[in-house]
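Project channel, design review

CF: Before we commit to the Mesorhizobium amorphae CCNWGS0123 constructs, I'd like one complete example in the thread so the newer folks can see what an input/output pair looks like. Taking HupE / UreJ protein.
RD: sounds good, go ahead.
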Amino acid sequence: MECIRLIVLTAAIAALFCEVAYSHEVRPAYLSLREDAPNEFSVLFKTPMQGDARLALSALFSGKIETVTPIVSHPTGDAMVQTWRMRTLEPLAGQNVVIDGLQNTMTDALVHVVFANGNSWTARLTPSEPSAVIPVSQSAWAVFVTYVRHGIEHIAFGFDHLLFVCGLMLIVRDWRKLVKAITAFTAAHSITLSCATLGWVTLPSRPVEAMIAISIVMVAAEIVRMERGQLSLAIVRPWMVAFVFGLLHGFGFAGALVELGLPQGDIPLALLAFNVGVELGQLAFIAVLLTAVYSVMRFVMIPRQAIVASAYAIGIVAAFWSAQRLDAMFL
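CF: and here is what came back for HupE / UreJ protein:
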């Protein structure tokens, strides 16, 4: 495809943008409340950290609340987890919950409440809407919409996953083969996302993240090899390589979903919705690139050397991530 040249230029820009924009603040905060006894709740509040400082967030309620136990805090590397127990002097259902300080950040917050009667409620709070009223129960549609949004956001800020897709588009020049490769990638990470989230297969998160970065380096190397006229499995059968690496990337998606938490009564629905959101975000990314290609190629021709330059840009960023993540494994 002639239009691949503009994709290359976009890839180079994306690679540079990734390094600048790769910030942990886009990770959501998470507030979980579970009713263990009448009007008594176990609370878990996780907030993202930047270095040794956590985001200045706190959970507030409109009704009268008593803290039953001291707040215990412990860092997990990229987040601060706080746990305590509280007693509500008024029914929690019907109260307004606010993540104070959220309006001053770039992140969202997921709130998950499980009542003793089995009813649950999940909501996504944003800087523009940092509060919500806790209902008695939540519809399946509300759960679906919430997790679709989180899936879209995860892929939108998952720069490593997007760089892999971008590299794949640089290798595959025929649109039919591109559809086949993207389909294989989608099917593969859907399999491991489901299996890992349901606890059927588990892998430690840090080695998975390191391997994802390494997979991008390998794809970048294949782009250079192809431009030199060489052949490899990735060049001849890109769908096979996309499937194998897709299995790996699925574990990365699962790690993000586990961090968000799942509504116990709607786990299959939340899993499906998150996966749908990831796919919608991925397809939107591809559509934006191809739309830009067909628009700009009408006015300018991109030098072929940009393909190799973009491959090196992607490879350098991915190599940096690989070193960073491998170093984190041994800390």
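RD: helpful, thanks. The longest strand covers residues 40-50.
CF: The chain has two domains: 4-24+154-329, 28-138.
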